[in-house]
Amino acid sequence: MPRSTNSVNSRRKRKKILKLARGFYGARSKVYTVAKNAVEKSFVYAFSSRKKKKRDFRSLWIQRINAEVRKYGISYSQFIKKLYNNNIHINRKYLADFAMNDPQSFKKIIDNIL
After folding, report:
1. Long-range contacts of 94-103 (CB under 8 A, 24+ apart)
2. Which one of 18, 28, 49, 109 has the fewest beta carbons within 10 angstroms of its own beta carbon?
3. Sign of the CA dihedral running 109, 96, 80, 88
4. Residue pLDDT, tens place only, 58-81
5. Does CATH place domain 8-113 in 3.10.450.50?
6. What predicted TM-score, i.e. pTM, was given to this entire model?
7. Are 81 and 49 in contact (CB under 8 A)?
8. What span, in angstroms and rounded, lies between the C-alpha atoms of 76 and 69?
9. Nearest-CA neighbor of 36 among 19, 53, 49?
10. Mean pLDDT of 33-60
């Protein structure tokens, strides 16, 4: 009995990889074996970047809070310590939002802890 190949499934598999590689540079979007490696690597980057995004945003929030707090003559670390000592539990995301978009509310928070 001759060897049978499942050409329908093989073509579907190749098309799927090449579709995922659309927009890649050169052979990475044209040649199946190169595209397969590029797509697998892109999945690795995508996974790690989902974790890295959380770190990046926390860092951004801290920088924004620090910039606003410096206007009132205290450092970020002193500000956070005073928040916790006064049992004010607001996360950094909302603090950064107040600092950027609602400076009056942020000033009220600072007045409460000083």
Report:
1. 95/61, 95/65, 96/60, 96/61, 96/62, 96/64, 96/65, 99/64, 99/65, 99/67, 99/68, 99/69, 100/64, 100/68, 103/68
2. 49
3. positive
4. 999 999 999 999 999 999 999 999
5. no
6. 0.78
7. no
8. 6
9. 19
10. 97
